Amino acid sequence: SVFSILEKFDEATRKQWFQFLKGELTKLNLFDKPAQIFNCDETGFADKTKGEWVIVNSSVRHQFELNGGTGKNYTTALIAVSAAGQLLPPFIIYAGKHIMSSWCTGGPDGTHYAVTPKGWIDAERYEYWFEQVFIASTAHINRPLLLIVDGHTVHISLKLIELMSK
Question: Where is the DDE-1 domain (predicted)?
């Protein structure tokens, strides 16, 4: 499976990934349709850090906690863009119980906002993003679409599979 291919990353894994991607692009006839190919990923920001540079291996998560951040004040941004350059509205997740309206001003048009206890994305918020942002923002685009995501556990659920088949 794709997931076992990506468990470790080396030259053989890289080649397998691009062979797999080429196969999917061929199967879906998307080589000349960049507007139908999307990539999304999340990134997080600690609100309070020492402000020092930290260089770590890409597999290290939450390094900010070792560099002054507590993880208590954390914000996640989920961004998606097509190979043709269409940027979908961002999805911002703050740490908290209730979202404050002051947190939702000044962002790019169409930005969606949510909260989780630690500001990290979870399955429920990712499903919301997929349905309310990705599907809604790509409704005008010919199908099929290819959305490339990493192996984060929130990217896989029964609800997402059901949403993809619509």
Answer: 74-159
